[in-house]
Amino acid sequence: MNATQLLRTADDPGAGQFLGVDWGSFVVVLLVALAATVVIVCFYALALRLLALGAPLDGSDKRSTAPASAAATFHRPPLATAAAVVCIAICVAAVLYGIWLVIPQFH
Known about the structure:
With 107 residues, the chain is mainly α. The chain has helices spanning 3-11, 23-51, 68-72, 78-102.
């Protein structure tokens, strides 16, 4: 690149790009945001599923024909509760980190 081309590029930083957007960086940000969203939603869904372990049946299937005394017991394994809390903590941490990245006064 010669000096004339460098000066022209410095005067017009969006030259050679459609609408002055660096589309490669745009796609990278899009893919990272999409992947982060999928991961956060999966952790949240896993946390809800873990919290539902041991819950009495709600009558929506034929397994709910058990006697009332058996259906009234509710026992969630402590490991499932701890794992659900960890999953929700991961979700909260990811959301707070995203907010921290977006708001410049925080850094």
